[in-house]
Design brief:
With 259 residues, the protein is of the alpha/beta class. The chain has one domain: Class I glutamine amidotransferase (GATase) domain (Rossmann fold), CATH 3.40.50. Helix content is 24%, strand content 24%. It has six helices and eleven strands. The strands form two sheets. The chain has a nine-stranded mixed beta sheet, with helices on both faces. It has a two-stranded antiparallel sheet with strand order 5-8. Helix 3 links the parallel strand 3 and strand 4. Helix 3 packs across helix 4. The longest helix has 20 residues. 48% of the residues are buried. The model has no long low-confidence stretch (mean pLDDT 96).
Length: 259
Amino acid sequence: MQARVLLIRTAGTNCDRELAFAFERAGARVEEEHLLALRERPQRIREVDLVALPGGFTYGDDLGAGRILALELRRYLGDALGEHHERGGSLFGVCNGFQALVRAGLLPDLEGIHATLTWNRNHRFECRWVRLRVEAGLGHVLPAGSLLPAPVAHAEGRLVFRERGAPARLEEEGRIAFRYVDARGEPVEDWPACPNGSTAAIAGLVSASGRIVGLMPHPERNLSPAHLPDSRPGRWGDGTEGLAFFRGLLQPYGAGSPA
């Protein structure tokens, strides 16, 4: 059995080919669909196992990163995505896709918790490698406590909450997928280990079902030792971590034969 992945793209998406390559390397069959076409045929979502939202700058981030995409997802695809999830399907968003999942209200899925992503604390675009620690909420995809090095490329990646006690609730309910950590593997909110100043060093979230996952960094850019900053295994891992992540996402549906 081969997992089926549908990548949604729209104006400003620019990381779809990288994400498609990652899923294909992990063994999936990948198809892309423009949002305008999917609006006309939302039943297309019934044909796949995982719906993915790639990174980029959809609609130029004119009203805030991922905001317009989030509005379109809610209005035109909300029912189809909800049915997809209820049937056992997965949703995945990276960078701009994660911003859209959060602003569409799909993450975090905790009543009384309101989150958004805003400007990095230093108000600068950050484009470099960081280290992520897998948290217990994502233990079904990768071993909890393991590290996933990956690049970031964003200006609005700081995850903030309206409620003061939100991080504690997220921790308790197992909704935290990744945290930014230093070279020792310790969570840190300060630059440079944490590029944006995200609350509680949170880099990614996961739903109660474990099947809606999103994060700001780009694991699809870490698929081999050649992708690493040193171009070889070393202080940034061995180059297998990103591929292991995508295989973990696909595991419930059968990863097929890696490309």
